[in-house]
Each structure stands twice: as C-alpha cells, then as structure tokens.
TrEMBL record:
This is Uncharacterized protein. Keywords: Membrane, Transmembrane, Transmembrane helix. Gene3D superfamilies: Thrombospondin type-1 (TSP1) repeat. It holds the Pfam family TSP1_ADAMTS. The chain crosses the membrane at residues 99-123.
Length: 142
C-alpha cells in the first residue's frame, strides 16, 4: 500500500517491494524407472505492491530461503523389472499369452518355409535353363 514517509504536502507515494519464489515447469525425469531425478527452474522475483508491473528477477538472497520450493525431486521410483507385456496398473508382472507365443512360432515357420520354397524355385529355374543357341528355321529361306 502506498505510504508517504515523513513528508507534508505533495509527496510521491512510497510503494513496498514484495519478493516471492517463482517456479518453472518440471523437466523430464532422468530415468524411465528405478529412480531418477527431475529438475525445474526456481528463481526469486520482485514485484512492486499495488502496481501492474510484472514480476522481475532479483538476487535469490532477497527471498526467504525457508520458503524456497524444491529445485529437484525423485521420480519414476518403480523398478524396471516390474515392466513387461500386460496391464501396467497391477502390481504383478504379466507374461505373454500362450496363444500369442503359438502364433509367433507358426508365423516364424511359415516365413522360413516361404523363404525355402522361394530359394528352391529359383534353384530349379536356373538348373533347367538350357544354355546354347536357338535356331529358328523359316520356310522359304533355306
């Protein structure tokens, strides 16, 4: 609030400067699991009370240290061994369905069989090609 300090008559008002900590957004965690750290920017900013002037950065020693928000915190504390295929909301690790395993095995053998068949067909084509010349006899030119 504006106050006049020891003046009489027309004085310029004296405004109080207020200092506060302002934080930025949290950065991405340093590890997807097994514990990591995430950081954010924290800075001391000043503002003149009763004015529409935006906050402006000041030296950190102007703000109260005890009120300073955390600059870093632990994140992603779950163990990496807990992650597997399945529902990530339950606490127990999930395994792949037996039907999915069977399907993958069948697809593997079909792929190997297809490659084998293609190789055999190519081999037979090359083996059966006759090498040499082809003579075409046209009537009336002999």
């Amino acid at each position: 609030m504006a106050a006049a300090h020891g003046c009489s008559g027309s004085c310029f008002p004296w405004f109080t400067e207020v200092f506060t900590w302002i934080t930025g957004p949290w950065m991405k965690c340093s590890s997807p699991c097994d514990g990591g750290l995430r950081y954010r920017d924290v800075g001391c900013f000043g503002k003149i009370e009763d004015r529409s002037i935006a906050h402006y950065p000041v030296d950190d020693n102007k703000c109260v240290d005890a009120e300073m928000p955390a600059r870093q915190e632990p994140c992603n504390l779950e163990s990496c061994s807990d992650y597997s295929i399945g529902d990530s909301n339950s606490g127990t690790p999930k395994r792949m369905s037996p039907w999915a395993i069977l399907l993958l095995i069948i697809l593997f053998f079909v792929g190997i069989g297809g490659l084998g068949f293609a190789g055999y067909t190519l081999y037979k084509r090359r083996k059966n090609q006759s090498k040499g010349f082809v003579y075409i006899m046209l009537e009336g030119y002999s």
